[in-house]
Structures are given as C-alpha cells and as structure tokens.
Design goal:
15% strand; alpha/beta; three-stranded mixed β-sheet
C-alpha cells in the first residue's frame, strides 16, 4: 500500500485478536493428531540450519508454521544504514514456534498510536499445508507487505496464511524489511548506499531460493508478490539485475515501480537534512562518512521520529522515502531509473499478474476532518503539487479536470479528490505499465494478466460516513486472515469471494496462468486499444447481493491518461542519476 493504512481498534478487534491468537497458539488439534496423541512439532534442516516449527489447527485446515526465521544479521550498530548481511547461522534447532519483532515503525498519520518493533527485525515466516508430500515440492508464493514504506510487516496478525493454507496447493512465505529512514536513507555518494528495504527483500528471496526445497517448496517455481508499497518492491525486484534468477513470476497488487511515489529526489539533501534534524553539528559541511558514523551512534527512536520533518501535511508527500538510482558501487540494487528500465524492456521478462481495486484513492482520510480540510484548502496549490509529485503550475489544470470550476475541496467533490489521487498514484501507472510492456514483451512465454477488485462489503480498511466504494487494500481482507477482521464465513458471499480470489492467485503461482472465471481475451498489442480485458470481481447488487460475479471490463479513461501523459512528457522526461 503506498499510503499508510489505518488499523481498526476497539472491543471487536480485541475479540478478533483473541480469536486469531487462539488459532495461532492452538498447537495440534484432533484434526492433525492420531490415536497416540498430537504429532510432534515439525522440524526442518535446511542449508541455513535446522528449525523447529509448530502445527496450527487453522481456521479451515491444519498447517505447519515456521515463524521468525532470520535471513539477515540484525541491522544494528555498525550495520545500521548498511546493505544486509546474510545471517551467520545457529547451532541446534532454531525455535520457530513464535513470531519476532516487526521492523521499527510509527504511524505518521496517527502519532498518538504506539511505536512498534525494533531494528532487529529481518525475519521471515514459512507456512506449508499438511497435504504436502515428501518428494513432491509445492509452488511457492513470497509475499512482500505494503504500508507506505513506513509500516506493516509479514506478521501473521496482519497477513495470516489461513486462506492459502485452506486451499492447500502452495507454500507461503511472508517477510519483514526495513522501513522509513532505516530502509531508504542514502547519502547519494555511496557512503550510505540506500535501497536497504529492497536489498532486504532481495536477500530474503535468496534465502528462499536456497532453502525452500527443504520445506517442501519448489525452488524452480517461486512467485514474488506484493501489494501497494510491496507491489512496488515486487516490480523493482523484477527490474533489478541481481534478482533475475531468484523467482519466476510476479504479482503486483495496487502498485508499481513507475508510480510518482517513487520518482527520484535529491537524496544528498535529504541525508544532510536528516543529520540536521538529529541535531548533529556541522551537518551541512561535515563529510558524509563522519555524519553516517554519528547517525549510527544515535538512538533509533530519535532517528525514527525525525521523519515528521519530511511531511508538510498528513500524507503529504505520499511518501518521502524513494528508490535510489545507485552508482556502480558494490552491492548496488538498481543503477538505472526504473521508469527507463521498464520503458525499454531492459530486464528478464517473467509472467505477470497485476491488479487494482475500484477506488484506489480512498485512503487520505485526513480530509474528512473539516479543520484539516480547511487547512489543506488554504494552501491547496502547493500541497496538491507535493501530493501528486508535479510542478505547482500544473495544479490548476488538474483541478479543472477533476473539480470543474471549484478551487477547493468540500464534501460535494471529496469523491473527485479521491479519484484524482487514485488516478495519479495507481490507475495511470497501471495503464502505463501494461501499455509499455506490450510493446516489447514475448507474450506467449511471458503473458500479463489483469484483474480488478470491486466486491463491496462492510469489511473495509477505510470507514467513513459516506460509502465511497472498495478502498485501497480491501482485497487483502479476502487473501489473508488478520486480527483486524473476523474470519470469513465459508458459505457467505465474503467467503465465496475469498475462495475465488485465492484460487486466482494460486492458479498463477502454480501454473503461470490466471483462472478464467469468465471468457476474456488475453493481453496482446492488438487488444491494448482502448485497453486489455481484465476480470472484475463484484457483488451482484442488481438482482442478488448474495451472489459473487466476475465480469469483463476493458474500460480506461483516455482523457485521464492524456492529462497525465501531457504532464509526464513535460516534466519527467530526464531521469535523475545520482
């Protein structure tokens, strides 16, 4: 997710937390026992070392879980702001029966919420169904969580495996990676190289490639997936030369690496500003090496909190943390602007599944607050320019397109603001991703499939007084169990929607194709005008709200595309090189 998602709190959530925790801590139920009692804890000896996990009874079917396996040395002390180092190993059996800390994070939109995690956080979780058979390796799905590069993790209370394990066809891996300034700081000169978040993801993929066969996974059938910021990470792994041999397919949900949220910035200036906000003397004249050493000896909490200085309004910019185009130094993750790499096809093609939800822009909840909205309107031209990553002189054109004659945002056009935000960050990049790929891809070997999630439900990450549709990240509710939502009833419309969405993903992971729930024409250069067919997952509101339906949609707002094309072609034609 490219903006920070807001978690739900209250008595209901406490009850659900308890329910999920009971499932996770249940051990072995009668479903996975035998006449002699519960089976022993599962054990696996891989190249990384031996681990002891646990049996989980599961919401649908029992499975085996291996929590908190380290894939990198803790990035603390002198390893802070350094490329990740593979974990050195351990003796005996690693206790993988409980989860470890998430990466240090703070909700910049809700500063009153508690700070979570620690710097010692580079762990992953492996889940396998009990149906796996020794000698027959299962396809593997690696999921990279989103969270605006500032929050979330692979923890099972956020991304639980229940629905995928209920399906039983794949092994699932979830992971943590460094967030915020810890994952993205760059000095611009190779002293602090940057892209640590993506390098963490890359090292986790290396771990999976090397060790997953010992867990019953097929190292030759690995799909990398992610949502929002995790989708951007997935896209960047597709483009990074050092990740080419680590996976075979890619799933990008509500995010790309060619979105404005990842446009290059002045990293050297951001680095020195960070030193300034920490109160380091001579922040503007000292060497980057000296400043880095001082930052490594600074309290982690102080570093985390300095991020507030990079926001001029809640959610503005959408994220100050960006992918860095590195120099040709050791360990570089990416050395060319990803927009250029994607446009010219300078990467190893792989089959792709990419998706949207129907109202991607419905995430900026701060503007529901009348006081904040008034403050926003008082400086709307500058703030919109920052939010949308455009020169302020283009803001009037954007406002006329979405707001007509109005020069401010109120309750009557708030939905158009969300549309504008969603178009800029998600829908327009989605269109360009497909359009550009079709120019050079070998679609017989490496097809691209499109879906859109529009299933309306009371379950949503973003509640408001006015229902504005399926919001950014709402599709995750049907793929992963979570402490924030009740388990889906199997025979409910939500349960049936989960079955469809999970099977769609599993088909792609296991067989490299999207299940055709209805007839559609695969993407080809000839079908790209106006746009390729995409399967759209919906509730049948017209005649039977309990019915789940899949329709074909190939509509794209070409006026919207032209608007953003004109701006892009004018102000972003020369990629920045550090």
């Amino acid at each position: 997710m490219l903006l920070l998602l807001f978690l739900l709190f209250g008595n209901t959530v406490l009850q659900i937390n308890s329910q999920i925790s009971t499932v996770l801590d249940d051990g072995l139920s009668s479903a996975v026992g035998d006449a002699k009692g519960p089976r022993p804890q599962p054990e696996v000896c891989a190249k990384a070392g031996c681990v002891r996990g646990k049996f989980v009874s599961g919401l649908i079917k029992p499975y085996e879980a291996f929590y908190g396996i380290p894939y990198a040395e803790p990035p603390v002390g002198m390893l802070r702001f350094e490329n990740p180092v593979p974990f050195s190993g351990w003796s005996g059996y690693w206790d993988a029966t409980y989860t470890r800390d998430v990466c240090l994070q703070r909700d910049v939109f809700k500063p009153d919420l508690p700070i979570l995690g620690s710097e010692d956080c580079l762990y992953l979780n492996v889940y396998r169904p009990l149906t796996w058979k020794k000698g027959k390796n299962l396809p593997v799905l690696v999921f990279i969580p989103g969270g605006a590069f500032t929050s979330w993790s692979g923890d099972p209370t956020l991304f639980g495996p229940e629905y995928f394990m209920g399906n039983g066809e794949i092994i699932l891996v979830t992971l943590n990676y460094r967030l915020g300034i810890f994952g993205f700081l760059s000095s611009g000169d190779g002293v602090v190289k940057g892209n640590f978040a993506f390098k963490d993801q890359q090292l986790a993929l290396q771990w999976v490639k090397t060790n997953i066969k010992f867990f019953g996974g097929d190292k030759n059938s690995i799909t990398v997936s992610g949502q929002s910021a995790g989708a951007a990470g997935t896209h960047l792994q597709l483009l990074s030369p050092k990740s080419q041999d680590l996976f075979h397919r890619a799933i990008m949900m509500s995010g790309t690496a060619i979105t404005s949220i990842l446009y290059p910035i002045d990293f050297a200036a951001q680095f020195r500003s960070s030193a300034k906000y920490l109160g380091i003397l001579n922040w503007d004249t000292d060497t980057t090496l000296s400043l880095t050493n001082q930052m490594k000896n600074t309290d982690a909490l102080d570093i985390l909190l300095l991020a507030d200085n990079f926001y001029v309004f809640p959610g503005t910019p959408a994220s100050p943390w960006r992918v860095c185009v590195e120099g040709n130094w050791e360990g570089a993750f990416i050395t060319e602007d990803p927009r250029k790499t994607w446009l010219e096809g300078n990467f190893v093609q792989k089959p792709i599944l990419t998706s949207l939800v129907s109202n991607e822009g419905f995430i900026q909840l701060t503007l529901f607050n009348e006081t904040l909205r008034q403050s926003f309107n008082e400086n709307i031209y500058e703030l919109l320019g920052v939010q949308l990553d455009i020169d302020p002189r283009y803001v009037p054109d954007i406002m006329r397109h979405y707001f007509g004659s109005k020069t401010y945002i109120d309750e009557t056009n708030l939905h158009k603001y969300f549309e504008m935000f969603g178009d800029r960050l998600f829908r327009y990049p989605f269109f360009k991703l497909v359009q550009q790929y079709l120019r050079y891809a070998d679609l017989e070997k490496n097809p691209i499939y499109l879906t859109e999630f529009g299933f309306e439900s009371a379950l949503t990450f973003f509640k408001s007084n006015e229902y504005l549709g399926v919001a950014h990240s709402d599709d995750l509710i049907y793929l992963f169990s979570s402490a924030d939502f009740p388990p889906l009833e199997p025979n409910s419309p939500e349960g049936r929607m989960s079955d469809i969405l999970v099977q769609t993903i599993v088909n792609f992971v296991a067989r490299g194709e999207v299940k055709a729930w209805t007839n559609f024409t695969p993407c080809t250069p000839e079908t790209s005008t106006p746009f390729c067919d995409r399967q759209e997952f919906l509730r049948n509101h017209r005649s039977n709200p309990d019915q789940v339906i899949v329709k074909i949609n190939n509509y794209i707002d070409l006026q919207m595309v032209k608007l953003w094309d004109d701006i892009e072609n004018d102000v972003n034609s020369t990629p920045q090189k550090l």
